Amino acid sequence: MELPILNREQTPAGGCSKSACGTTTDQMTHLPEAIREKVHNHPCYSEEAHHHYARMHVAVAPACNIQCHYCNRKYDCANESRPGVVSELLSPTQAAKKVLAVASQIPQMTVLGVAGPGDPLANPERTFETFEEIAAKAPDIKLCLSTNGLNLPDNVDRIAALNVDHVTITINCVDPEVGAEIYPWIFWNNRRIRGAKGAKILIRQQQKGLEMLVERGILVKVNSVMIPGVNDAHLKEVSKIVKQKGAFLHNVMPLIAEAEHGTFYGVMGQRSPTASDLQALQDDCSGDMNMMRHCRQCRADAVGLLGEDRGQEFTMDKIEHMEIDFEAAMVKRKQVHDGIEAMRAERKTAQETAQETAPEAILPQGCRPALLAVASKGSGLVNEHFGHAREFLIYEASPAEVRFMGARKVPAYCTGAMECGDGETALDVILDTLSDCEGVISAKVGIDPWAQLEAAGIQPYGEYAMEPIEDAVRAVYGEMIKSGRLESTDAMISQAG
């Protein structure tokens, strides 16, 4: 299926006179109805859905058949969110029990994924037994898996038979020489194959598996790890090729390389990309591909909304003592999902009405865009205290649109309900992380951080608590224009000349 290419054409001059004509909620409107139906409540495939719906991963796949220089599955910290790490390995039966417990307690959970800690298709029996149990007991939950692709072609028919209609393939290169710098070896036909020869086999299997999935109508997301100096200049080519082969979404993620993780890259001092490095590459790739920007690089046992991890609430020792009435849970789940959809529809109608009727929504053309950070704990609302935020959502506002650019993790400034104000080091990190933003919007900001944000040139806004995020960003951007903080691009060009 050929999908339209996003962002290829620039907004025509004067063709978009309202501030909200290109909001991030428009991300899916160009897609066929059948595709929109598959992703409308999938938090990993839909940027808008990730504000409302949750996912969970079950760690049933311990073995892996390749070695990546950025991976070390032996290291784990329960408070750390990083792909490939888990606190508890499960059997398929335990995993099914955990899924029912989570679905009962977190009714907005719509997606079950198997993503490790090894490769799901290096452990096919454990992975497919888990899917079979969940499909029988909780048919309203979407099934996903994430694979390196080496064993994918041999398993596509079984994936399709189980109605697993979302698959993520990690593809870091299409050139074996580049691959040799990322993968020291693969395990293939009972042999360990090293260097470019192994990478060539891996790439061949990935591309073949991608084509086979697309032929069967299965949505494919491609993950790529951005490794500065290794594959960053190469990923634009990867993006073009996977798009040509029918991938639905491309997720370029930053390398996580810390020495304490014990990975090759971490120990060798390989640097990770900066937020601006990542954004620039995502923008370069977006000319050919629908890009994912809301990824949180989740653990292989993550539970909850993207950006939160409630896994410690659902360890097996706790689940053993839970009484689960899944019939009652199914009724509650439907009520919650209906409520979410009603809210989304109401919000969309209100937004469209405002665009058509509110003259104040019309912003002057020509002003430069601005980055704004938002504190939110879900539901698409400004509903997080600045001091409690562990991540900020970054939006780019312009006269034409409000565009989601990504999420940035930070240490919380407050360490408890009454322990705010002792986090000077955390505040320094937050100020550095948001240094390219011109404002931060949160439900509330304390006096001390307010002053330091202003001193750093980041204007705090605390008057949009419980407002929809995009409405708040649009309103703040309008305030910035009225206050004269945003010179027009014409003025900037004139000054430069």
TrEMBL record:
Residues 1-20 are annotated as: Disordered. The keyword Lyase applies. The lineage of its organism: Bacteria, Pseudomonadati, Pseudomonadota, Alphaproteobacteria, Rhodospirillales. Pathway: Cofactor biosynthesis; Fe-Mo cofactor biosynthesis. Coiled coil: none annotated. GO terms for molecular function: 4 iron, 4 sulfur cluster binding; lyase activity; metal ion binding. Its cofactor is [4Fe-4S] cluster. Involved in the biosynthesis of the iron-molybdenum cofactor (FeMo-co or M-cluster) found in the dinitrogenase enzyme of the nitrogenase complex in nitrogen-fixing microorganisms. NifB catalyzes the crucial step of radical SAM-dependent carbide insertion that occurs concomitant with the insertion of a 9th sulfur and the rearrangement/coupling of two [4Fe-4S] clusters into a [8Fe-9S-C] cluster, the precursor to the M-cluster. This is FeMo cofactor biosynthesis protein NifB. CDD domains: NifB (cd00852), Radical_SAM (cd01335). InterPro entries: Aldolase_TIM, Di-Nase_FeMo-co_biosynth, DiNase_FeMo-co_biosyn_sf, MoaA_NifB_PqqE_Fe-S-bd_CS, Nase_CF_NifB, NifB_C, rSAM, rSAM_sf. Residues 50-299 form the Radical SAM core domain. Keywords: 4Fe-4S, Iron, Iron-sulfur, Lyase, Metal-binding, Nitrogen fixation, S-adenosyl-L-methionine. The keyword S-adenosyl-L-methionine applies. Belongs to the radical SAM superfamily. NifB family.
